[in-house]
């Protein structure tokens, strides 16, 4: 199993919209809204690293209201 925490900055005022969109992605197991440098953190789990990378690059990073992401792989 491959896991990562993905930190996100969203467009101003769009945190809840992004959180709701993330909850529609099956590999996103948990989300939290944050105060500080980042707006959201999500725990993402997949069967392997290739699927994990695909979810992050093709689904999470392409959400319209996500400005930037930082991915931290769990080892």
**What is the average per-residue confidence, as pLDDT, rounded to a whole number?**
98
CATH architecture group name: 2-Layer Sandwich
| Poorly predicted tracts of residues | none
Please state roughly what percent of the residues sit in beta strands, choosing from under 5%, 5-15%, 15-25%, 25-35%, 35-45% or over 45%. Answer: 35-45%
Give me the strand/helix succession: EHEEHE
Q: Structural class, from helix and strand content? A: alpha+beta
Tell me the domain tally.
1
Set out the fold topology.
Elements: E1 2-10, H1 15-22, E2 28-33, E3 40-46, H2 49-60, E4 66-74
Antiparallel strand pairs: 1-3, 1-4, 2-3
Quick gist of this model?
The chain has 75 residues and is of the alpha+beta class. It is built from 2 helices and 4 strands; from the N terminus they run E-H-E-E-H-E.
What does this structure look like?
This protein has 75 residues and is α+β, with helices and mostly antiparallel strands. It has helices at 15-22, 49-60, and strands at residues 2-10, 28-33, 40-46, 66-74. It has one domain (2-74): Lrp/AsnC effector binding domain/regulation of amino acid metabolism (RAM) domain (Alpha-Beta Plaits, 2-Layer Sandwich), CATH 3.30.70. It contains 2 helices and 4 strands. Strands 2-3-1-4 form a 4-stranded antiparallel sheet. 24% of the residues are buried. The model has no long low-confidence stretch (mean pLDDT 98).
């Amino acid at each position: 199993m491959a896991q990562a925490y993905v930190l996100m900055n969203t467009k101003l005022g769009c945190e809840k919209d992004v959180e709701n969109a993330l909850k529609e992605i099956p590999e996103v197991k948990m989300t939290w809204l944050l105060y500080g440098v980042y707006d959201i953190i999500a725990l993402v789990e997949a069967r392997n690293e290739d699927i994990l990378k695909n979810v992050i690059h093709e689904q999470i990073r392409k959400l319209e209201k996500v400005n930037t992401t930082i991915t931290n792989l769990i080892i």
